[in-house]
User: Fold Zinc finger MYND domain-containing protein 12 from Lates calcarifer.
Amino acid sequence: MEAKTQVSGTTSKMIPLASPKGMEKLCELCQREAHLQCNKCRVTFYCDVDHQQADWVGIHERICQFLIPLRTPTLFSLQRAGSVEIQLKKAELIEICRLVAQSKLSEGKHQEALPAAQFCLRCSIDVHGPSTVQLVPAYLLLAEANMGLGNLAVVAELLSQAEWAVLKSPECGPAVHHRLHRSLGRLHTETGNLEAALLHFANDIYFASEEYGLDSTVTCGGYFLMADVFAKQGKMPILRSLYSEVAHIWHRNLTKLLKTHVQTTPMLLELFYDNAQQVEVDKMLRTMLEFEQNESRKDSAQIALVAHCLAMLWFLGGDAVKALGFGSTALQASQLIPNHDLTEPIQGLLQLVQSLQTDPHPGSD
Assistant:
């Protein structure tokens, strides 16, 4: 008898599993004994309907059919278990799971991100082996998902494994070190170990600047996280200084993108930053803007700078309404300062947005 469960508007059929003794299947999520089987791919198993539903929403819907050739134990596949073709398919699955997990994390869907991050780690172990530095991205995804769920002991264990893999790989590049220190900094911030958090964020900034440069938007993410620690310590002048640095870095980078957009071929922000990055940047800039707007002694120059960043971000992201809203906020703030150097660029952006709303296809007949 089939058990059916509704998943995100789709009926996912599950069939009871009868495995020969000694050949028990394990649940995809918890690795306990499985009692159900996915009726679509028939190579994925679950202990109960709840775990099937969580996996379907989290990642399985995206990769269900990918798993059939990898998990079907034919003589041909066993002979070619280590073949380049199979390794490439697994590498593709790792990338799919990484992108799905990162996207869900950017949306704050930490529970839904877990299945994708877990599968990413298991598949990475299959391809690269245990305790290798290539597992670090998957460890960090799992750590971020668990941090959002408040599972700090699990986060500490995952980051410990990631740190051990990095320590065993002296050839490991600065990009991996930067991501690891950023995650460790976030963990120590959550646990209240603020001095350790500052140390890790300092290392994060150092390694990010080695890989991407001091003026990189990746590097300035460390400044923003460090500012949060100083806020918890009550050191507001340092926070404001770091916020100013973050805003200036983003302003320079977005201004370059906007100039390229206007002077050459129009392009959307997604060509430079994926959706997860856009969400993260928007959240960061909004946090800085709201902080300044709520201050008793408002810094109009900082409000104009950050709001202009948000206006450019949303214009390049294709949302004219938000671009106009933030652009208007930026203009009002800049006009409070005589001869402010941002007033003209902000007015130019507002005119550009309004002209595109009037004629979305300029130059067309």
Q: What stands out?
A: Confidence is low (pLDDT under 50) at residues 1-12. The first helix runs from residue 49 to 63. Residues 250-358 form one domain. The two ends are 62 Å apart (CA to CA).
